Amino acid sequence: MTDATQDPGQPTAAPLSSKAAPPKAAPPEVDRLAGTRGLGEYITARHGVSPSRALATGAAIAAIALAFLIVLSGPVSNASVFSSAYSVLYAVYLGFLFMLVAGVGQGIRGLVAGAQAHYLYAGGVVHTRRSVARAVAWQDVIQLRSIHRRRGDRPDVGEVVGYRLEARDGTSIVIPLVLTEGRDAFVDRIVAALRTHNRPIV
Fold it and tell me: What is the residue-averaged pLDDT of the chain?
């Protein structure tokens, strides 16, 4: 694994403890599950984009695009197909059409994915999606594997977009990579814990 300053997609070790303000408490059901698995002290959490927010954002994008499509429909239909004005208007029209499709797609993806969150404890992590919660202790982890934006048929080549935490019981938890100033502190904390337990990071 390369040095963190050379490749922001590669995680680096970071201490689990922090002098920052105490994090907001985990939900009671998450704490209970963590307690039954012996995960110890609660550290912090990462929440994904809520379905309602994704739907609202997608709807706003689609509404803006639709409004421009309606405004442009008249000029596009009235312009001569052989004129340069038509070429420009048609290109702009297609751009807003793609924007409309992207807005609808974003809303649908948010609804399909559902509300997700990762809760980090000293002894492991709890992942929640909709009403389902799964816990993995560090000692039960097989490996932390990087997820790449695929290029062709190679799943291990391309930009790193997240990591997959794989456990002995078959549990697999995907942790998206969220960079802030070139680093992902949440993933770095997980890496620090896994290195302490001598678990491979690939």
Answer: 82
For strands 132-137 and 160-167, give the pairing. unpaired
Half-sphere exposure of residue 182, counting CA atoms within 13 Å on the CB side? Answer: 6
Q: How would residue 1 be classed by pLDDT, with cut points 50, 70 and 90?
A: very low
- Provide the edge-to-edge strand list for the sheet that holds 42-47: 42-47, 116-121, 124-129, 132-137
d(Cα 131, Cα 143) in Å, to the nearest integer? 26
Q: How many whole angstroms separate alpha carbon 185 and alpha carbon 182?
A: 10
Q: How far apart are the first and last CA of the chain?
A: 8
pTM for the whole thing?
0.66
Burial of 26 (0-12, 13-18, 19+ CB in 10 A): buried
* Alpha helices (runs of H) in 79-149, residue ranges in sequence order: 84-113
pLDDT grade for 58, boundaries at 50, 70 and 90? confident
Q: pLDDT by residue (tens digit) across 67-126?
A: 988 888 888 888 787 788 888 888 998 999 999 888 888 777 766 666 789 999 999 999
> Tokens at residue 18, please?
């922090």
CB-based contacts of 58, cutoff 8 Å, min separation 6: 103, 104, 105, 106, 107, 108, 110
- The closest of 47, 93, 100 to 74, measured between CA atoms, is 93
